[in-house]
Every structure is written in C-alpha cells, then in structure tokens.
Amino acid sequence: MGSLHETNSSAVRKRIESHTFDNEEGEEYEASRFGGFGDYMRRKKIKLQNLDAEIRALSPGKPPIFRGVVAYVNGYTQPSLNDIHNLIVSHGGGFLQYLDGKTVATHIIASSLTLKKREEFRRYRIIKPAWVVESVKAGRLLPWDSYRVVDEGHSQKVLRFDSGRLSSQANIQKRGYKDQSDASWYTSQLKDQGRVTEDVGSSATAPATHDDATSSLPASSTGKESDYGEFPSMGSLAEDQDTPTTPKQAVVSVEEDSPILENTAEQSASVVEPPLEETAPVEMPLLREPISVKPGMTPEEYNAQLLSDPRMRNSSVMNPEFVQQFYRESRLHHLSTWKAELKAQLQAATQEKSQSQTAQKKRLPGARRYILHVDFDSFFAAVSVHKRPELADKPVAVAHGTGNGSEIASCNYPARAYGIKNGMWMKGALQMCPDLQVVPYDFPAYEEASRKFYSSILAIEGVVQSVSIDEALVDITMQCLEAGGSDGRGISEGSIYREQARADEVAAKLRASIKEKTGCAVSVGIGGNILQAKVALRKAKPAGQFHLKPDAVLEFIGNLTVQDLPGVAYSIGAKLEELGVTYVKDIRELSREKLVSALGPKTGVKLWEYARGIDRTEVGTETMRKSVSAEINWGIRFVTQAQAEEFVYNLCGELHRRLVENLVKGKQLTMRIMRRSADAPLEPVKHLGHGKCDVFNKSIILGVATNAKDIIAKEAVSILRSFGFSPGDLRGLGVQMTKLEPVKSMQSSQQQLNFKTSPVRPKREPNPATDPDEVDSPRKGDRSNLSTVSSAVSHAPSLNDSTQKPLNLAGTQFILPSQADPEVVAELPGDIRSRFVSMSKSQAAKTRSESPTPLSRPGTAAGSVELPPQSQLDPDTLSALPEDVRSEILAYYERPSTTAVSALAVAPRPQPSSSSRLRPTTPTKKRRGRPPLKASKAPGNATLTQSNFIRIRPSSAASSAERTASRQSSPQINEPVEVSEDFLAALPEDIRREVLEEQKRIRMQQRSALNIPATRKPPQPKPSGPAAAVGQKRLRLPPLPERPTFTSKKLSTLPELREALSSWYSSFGTDGPFAEDVEALSKYLRRVVLEEKDIDKAVSVTDWLGWLISDARENTKESTASSTSETKDAHAQSYQAWTTALDMVQESVQAAVQERGLPPVEFS
DNA sequence: ATCCTCCCCTAC
DNA sequence: TAAGGTAGGGGAGGAT
Ligand SMILES: Nc1ccn([C@H]2C[C@H](O)[C@@H](COP(=O)(O)OP(=O)(O)OP(=O)(O)O)O2)c(=O)n1
Ligand SMILES: [Mg+2]
C-alpha cells in the first residue's frame, strides 16, 4: 500500500518550498511580490486602455531601447504610470502591472520610496522616472546608475541579462510557496532532487529569497502529487518518468540574450495584460506549429496546438458551455450535490418529525443503542446492471470511457474479484480484467433508485442521517428498546435478545423493501454505535446484513486493518504504520498520550476509542453549512490569460448560483489554483487531466458579505492575476465562499417605508457612546432597532422574544422547545432555512411528482407585500419565486440580525495577507507519494462534531463557555451515550478498566463545561446581550468621514471602508443618504487622492458604493413587482437620491485626481 | 489558554 | 479520449 511512497514527501517538500537558490551571492535579483490589490483598478484601467501590443503597433519606428527591460512602477510618478508605461512599451520594453514574485521586474521605477518599500526592493534597480524619459530622449538606454533612487550601491545588485546565467537559473529548484518568504531564511541551501519547482518559465530571473515578511505572496501553495489515480499496481509510471522538455529548459537552451529577454518581457506582459480580443476566442491566434511537441514550446503554444483539434476544444474549457457540461458529467460533482440536497431535506424532515412527535422520549445515558448503516452494493454498477440483466454475472464498471485515464466510479462484485476498485483508472482495471464491461453513467437512474431507497428508510421508525446518495444511517434504538421492554440499561438476557432480534428484523425488512423497489441489493450493518454499524457493513456486503453484537466488538474490530476504520486512510494510516500499528488491535498497545502526540488531540483520542469499539457520535446531528464552493480541475487548458479570466468569471457565476440557491452570502472568498508542476509534462497521462500540480490558495476578506457574481468575479480574477501564472500552466481553478451569512435583502423588510424626503437626521446623535476611535468597524445589519424596520416586521413571528412559539411551516406544527436554550433559538433560523433550501432544491431537481419527503404539499400562495404569518407560506410557491424575492421573503421572517453583528464581531481584521510561515514538519514522516491503493473504504461520516456556528456567536469572551454549556442542555439533553453496559460487561477486564477511566475523564470534562452559568436555564433569549448592545450602539454610526475613524490608518483599509459604506447604505438605503454624509465622504475621498495619494482606494471605494446601489436596485426591481406603486415610487426616489450621491462622490474624486494633474479615472 | 488562518485529509 | 467535486474535521502554528 504504502510501497510507493514518493520522493515527494511532505518533509522534502517543505524544504524545497522554502528553498531559495544557492548562489545568493550572485547577481540574482529577488523576485518581488505583487503589489497588493490596492492599485488594481488603476492598473487594470491602464491595461484596458493600453494594450502593449497596441501601443507597439501604434508607435512603429521607435527605437527599441528598452528591450530587455521589464519595468514596474511603484507609487506615483511624474510622468504618470500611464505615460511611463507607454514610453517603455513603445520602445520595446516590458511592463509589469503587478509584482507577483513570479514575473520578475528588471527595473523598478519610483520617485521615492517608503522605508518599507526600500527594504522590500532592496535588491532591485530602483530608478527615477527620469531615467525613462531621458533615455527616450537620448534614443538609447542611459546607464541607470545615475538615476538611482537609493543612492548607494551596496544593496542594489546588478542583474545581468546577457549571460547565460539568467536562463540557467531557470533550472533552479524552488517553490512558489508562500512559506518561502520566511522559510527561505533558514533553509536556503536545500535544493533537492527536482521535486516541485518554481515556475520560472515566465520570468527571466529565478525568484529568490524573500525575507520580507510583510509582503503578500500567494497565500499558499503546496506541492501535490496529483496523478495518484495511476494505481501503483499498474507499474507503469510513464508519466512520472517522462521527462519531457519543459519550456523552462527550452529557454535554457536558447542562449541568446536578446531573444530571451524579449520573450520574457512579452510573456510577462501578456500574463498581466491579456489581449482583449480573446474574450471571443475560438480562433487561436497562436502559432501554426507543426503537430509535434516541439522542445521549446511554451505551455500556451502547446495548448493552442492541442486545442486545434475541435473535439478537444469541445471537451475542454474552450467550450463556452464547459462549466455546465462538465458538471453535468461529473460524478463527483453529482455525489456532492446529492449529498447536500439530501442533507437539507433530511434535516428538514427530521426537524419536522421531532417537533410533531410529542415529547420524544429521551434516551438514558448508558443505554444500548442500535444503529443501522444501510448502503447499496456497488451502487452505480448495480443500477446499470439492473437495466442490462445480461451483464449480471460479468465484471462491470461504470465509467465515461474506456481510455486509460477514465475513472471507474463503481464496479460490481465480479469485477472486484479481479482486484478492480472504485476510483481506479481504466488502464489499471483493464490490465486486471481485459473483459471488463464498461457501462456509462445514468445519473437520473441513480437519483431514482436513491429516492426509493430513502423512502423505504424514512418509513422506519428512527432517526435518519444521510451519508450519501446510496448510504444512510438509521438509529432505531427507540423501537428496539421498546421491543425489548427495558430501558436499555440493565443487562437482561431476554431484553437484549428481543432488541437484537428487532434490529435484525428491521434490517431484513428494509433490505427486502429496497430490493423490491429498486431491484438492487443493499447491505446493512448493525451495531451499537456508528462505528460498529459501519464496520459491520463491510462484513455484511454484498447483499447481506451483519449485526456486530457487543461481545464480538473487540475481536472483530481488533482484527481490522487500521485503514478499515473510518477517517483513517493513506496519511493517517501511514502515521500509524510508523508507530508499528497495522491492525486495530495494535492501537490498543499505544497509550492515549502517544496517539495524541502522533496524531493530534482529537484524532488521537478518537482512534484510541475506535480501537475499543467506542464511538460517541450521535446519528442525525447535522450542522450548518460553512462554505460553498465551485471548482474544476479537469479540462483546463488555456492559451491566453483572457480565456482563463473568462473561465473564472463563469466559475464565479456558478458559485453565485449556489450561494443564491442556499440563501447565503459570504464574506471571505478563497481562490484555489492548480498549476502544472514545473517538472510535470505538458500532457498528463489522464486525458485533459490536471496532472501533477502545485496548489495555491489565496483568500480575501470582503468588506461585507456578498453573493454578487461580478464582485466575486472581480476579486477572483484579481487574485488569479496576482499570481501571475502563465495561463498555459493552469490546470485547475476553484472559488470558495466562507464566512457565510444568511441572505438578507435590505429592501425587503424596509420596502414599506416611505422615502424620507426631508433629511431630518434620525437619532444619530443619541449615539453618544460612539467614540469613533473605538468603533472596530461599522456594523451592518441589525435592522431590528431601526424604527423603520420594526414596524414593518412587527407582526412577523419574532424568534427572539418568545421561548415557545408555534410556527407552522409547510403545514406542520413546529414548536420550539420550552426550555429556550439560546443555542436552540440561535439555530432556529438555520433550520427554517434548511427547509426552504431543501424545498427549493427538490423543486429545482424536478423531482416534483411525489416527493419522498413529507415536506412539500400544496397550499395557499404567499407573496403579497404584507406577508402572512409564516405558517401560511406555501413552499412550492415560494420556491418558484425568483431568487431575490424568495430571499426577501425569507429575510422577512429571519431573526433580526444580531447575527450579522456578532458575525462581524468575530471577523478577523482584514489582513494584508497573512504572513507566510514555515511548517517545519518532522522530516521523518514522508507519507505523501501517492494515495492509497485500497478498497474504497466504508463511508465515513462518523464524525460529526458540534462545531462553531457561524451565525450566532456571542462576541464577548464570556460567551464561549456559555455556548458550550448551553449546547449541553440543548435538545438532546442526555449526555452522549458512550458505552452501553452490556458492551462494557463484555469487555475483558483490562480494557474495561481503561474504558471506565476514559469515561471518568470525559464526564469530568462535561461537568466542567456544564458548570458554567447556563447549566439548566440559559439566560433568556437575549436580543440585548452584549453583542446586540454593541450592535445597537454602533449600528447607526454613519461611518463617514470627518471622523477619525476614517483617517486613522487602522480603519482605512479597503475592506473596512467597504464595510463602512455597506453599513451606511444599509442604514439609509431606502431613505436616501444625507447630504452631509455624502459631502463628508466626498471630502474624505478627496483627501485620499490628494494626501494619501491613493487613487485606487478612492476609486474602489466609489465603485463599491456604485455596486451597493446597483445591486440593491437589481433586487428592488424584481422584488417590487408585486409591491404597491407607492413603494415603487419610494424606491425610485431613493435610487435617484443615491445615484446623485454617487455622482457627487465621483465628481469629487475626479476633481481631486485632476488637481494632481493625472489623467481622469474611470469608475465602473 | 484560546482563537484564527491556512492548509491537509477524508468520504462519497 | 473524458468530465480529477466538495464539505467538513482537524492539525500546526501564529496572534492575542
Ligand atoms: N471513488 C468513488 C467512489 C464512489 N463513487 C460513487 C459510485 C458508487 O457507486 C457510489 C457509492 O459509493 P460506495 O463507496 O458505496 O461504493 P459502491 O456502492 O459502488 O460499492 P459498495 O458500497 O458495495 O462498496 O459513489 C465514485 O464515483 N467514485
Ligand atoms: Mg454503496
């Protein structure tokens, strides 16, 4: 299994990652980091206006005096950035809009430098703009020496373009790892055998050491051996052994300086400044190369050639429909989607069930449990075979194709007899079994089978948790105990026997029922906890059931391989192997401390327990969604940057869709980029696969939660650019939203309000406590204390102010527990949400006819401006509404948002970019090569921890303990069952002692948690808790200028300003702004331009306001469809007021810019 | 200590 | 040809 540990161990990687190249004494210049996003807009504009190619075309005959120069302008200059750019490019030079650490500037042009920058650029040629101007004047490249900004020679090194040295550096191994920045410090010498290397292809100089901790490089990247799909058993490691000529090496081979430089410059420029026309691609302007892989080919050239095949174009990213097409065919995508849908539906159903069932009996602490783990046998394959009975006894696999790299999603048991496994590549499978029958996917059929499966399962009396489309957990403890006639605690032979018999019977019936409905076999594992059920399932398969009874647990589990345990696979398995552990029973030889120190506190303890058959996890504990993402790592082959950016745009569209679908917005955007490893061939073994890649993540904090496609896309593209990767090397791209907040359309709940024409400033003064300096950041949200809102919402159920509240959703009684645990209350909206979500999903999935869940039922319509009690809402109608309206309605019922306030309270200060760090992994663990060749493991959803809730989080320190405590007293009041008595009784003496000790320990912990205030009765719903109070006070603080808030360095970063604006806008959105505020903002931005000299910031802020306005406008347009004309009118007025305000601000900024003698800026 | 961020790992 | 997605647990290590 681990036999093929690759040389690419993490330890080795770490070292390489931090590697800088050897000859630091040499002439290399340090690759510099990108300049941050601050000036993104300004530079982008230049880009849009002046494409290098155009510039050159427009200025023929100019002497190419800057040939070989790659310039970067820092700060503001005279002549302007724009002009310098023009001068340089038109005279044959290259120009960088960004410093990205990959593409290397040869000269940095600046009028002056801050000390910090001075340090940052210490190793560069830093020269004054005059050098450019005068060189042009002179018609030749003047010696830069006389134009130094930093006028002493000792730290500025000279970069020699002309020696072969430059290009030879291209071979230097290093990583584009963020860690390198400080890691390089102490790890500089390690070079290592050609593992992950830095992309030098696009730069003339190898990126070098970074000791500048403040700089912001790619947030991270990791080497990733990606072609793990190639199973070791195949032996053919063709790809790995392949040593194709990479462009880097090609560059080396060309030793003429000038061409190299030219190449470099162009390439660098093109990375950052993609030609525009590429947005309508189709025609690859690139090289009419011969069909062969020329040694010196750039990745772009290669891709262009590759894509000249129309079929290639069609299945790759070149196809405009690519995203949808890919997702339509991606099994993994379907699995994920299905899972999310099922989770939402089941959660809703469970909620409903538990609420309608009166007084559900609680289980006693030490009682026995009976858990079923139900799972289709070779699901995809079975469904397909069912349609093709003639294949029944043949080895069958489900896959898209029969080529080497086609992945087998599922194979039947005859195929498994040959050693074939799910997830294996076709090549390997065919080697094992040339007769393998390959059948295509049939996603709708899987859905259908699953629907029947779940309908059978939901018919059982018990708690259900979905694991996946073909797999579920059912806790049937209640009915078993009933059948046994005991409380599940005593050890009574008779009771236990009857309980077990009942469990077996339920399982058998279930299997029969599903088999009958679907024609496919399921197996059932039965055990006293999730772990036991799961491992029992293994033995049950195929087409059987197995009850792992208490007295057999230890032996059975002990003889499993560690990797058979859920949550243990390649990596953890290897760590255990290092500890001398192969079988689960071996784990018992290790002390808890040992395990913890080797694997971490949670994992260590968990394994210690697993080894003894213990698993305290409860069935059905579902948590709230924490992230939404979209990612594609297949078929990514770009020729131009513009294509890449367009793709990112599409991907963001997808993300947007999902955010809306889930009724959330997010505050943190993370972009994930896979880039071909330097030593990876241009063509991976897998058709259009990503091959071996380095992975880079970077996240940014948005000032305010958003789901707007354009904003997301803008940021994502900006991140992508910041890496400056050569588009041809991109292999995978993804975007993820975290720090989610429930969607709240501001217009919705306020829309009945009248537009205030008279700017009577509402109590804003009554805000004496608003010491601007102490405002950590303006809060948005809390509309509950806007008089405007409360009136509008007054008749809606307030989830805050009542401990028991009948809500009737989808026609079923819905009652909050009387012991109003704040945590429960806090979670409520999420539950409601999940119902909305699940409903909208089942609608979307067109699984209309008869929903398996009891959720949807026809009803009356909702949607008039004056919304009825929530109980009257008809889910179907609701889900059919346009997204904006739907979210509005939801927002209407949404708990007034202390949520947003507290979420903000914990939001980290936007960091310029978290400083890089080195993770000194112990060099001894080198499990990393390729992942496992092992049977697909039993499904592992065993670990559901109660983790943080995003939405409600008391912001004060006091609340942490309280949260813990209140969770203890939440619905499942009982302590988690740890070990049942009979199980304990069955244990050998020594192990029992251990377990008892463990239990004692756990109980101590729980007690200490419980002791905190709220053991019994948590403080009553506290809309006025500390967080809310803070929110109230600060909410209305118009985060506008003239206030130290804005001018203090600390609070003037872009995200903060954005957030401030958002807050401002949401406070006065429907009313229109106050003139004085607008004026203040204008003045402030004017100062930003004139004093801070940060035009970008001013422009960005202004644009943000523009976004807010137009975004709201979009919402309004849709949502007012059914509103009164009066409302519409108010909106129109408000909109106009805001537009005017925007105009004023823009004008002000523009004026300031012009005062500085700079070309006018453009607002988006 | 505890939190937060950035990853890795796992599952289907 | 081929469709290598996605969410959540949790560890390491810096920030507080
Ligand atoms: N690497 C994988 C693993 C699974 N699946 C899909 C196809 C499977 O049919 C389905 C269910 O996964 P299981 O792990 O339950 O595997 P099977 O149901 O195919 O086989 P069995 O449950 O009998 O082991 O998920 C996949 O596409 N790729
Ligand atoms: Mg299965």
TrEMBL record:
It is found in: Nucleus. One of its GO terms (molecular function) is transferase activity. Its EC number is 2.7.7.-. Keywords: DNA damage, DNA repair, DNA synthesis, DNA-binding, Magnesium, Metal-binding, Nucleotidyltransferase, Nucleus, Transferase. Residues 1-11, 214-223, 745-757, 784-805, 839-854 have a biased composition (Polar residues). Residues 371-569 form the UmuC domain. It is an enzyme of class 2 (transferase). Residues 912-923, 951-970 have a biased composition (Low complexity). Residues 1-22, 189-274, 744-805, 839-878, 905-979, 1006-1047 are annotated as: Disordered. Residues 61-149 form the BRCT domain. The keyword Nucleotidyltransferase applies. Belongs to the DNA polymerase type-Y family. PANTHER family: DNA REPAIR PROTEIN REV1 (PTHR45990). Deoxycytidyl transferase involved in DNA repair. Transfers a dCMP residue from dCTP to the 3'-end of a DNA primer in a template-dependent reaction. May assist in the first step in the bypass of abasic lesions by the insertion of a nucleotide opposite the lesion. Required for normal induction of mutations by physical and chemical agents. This is DNA repair protein REV1. It comes from Paecilomyces lecythidis. The gene is REV1.
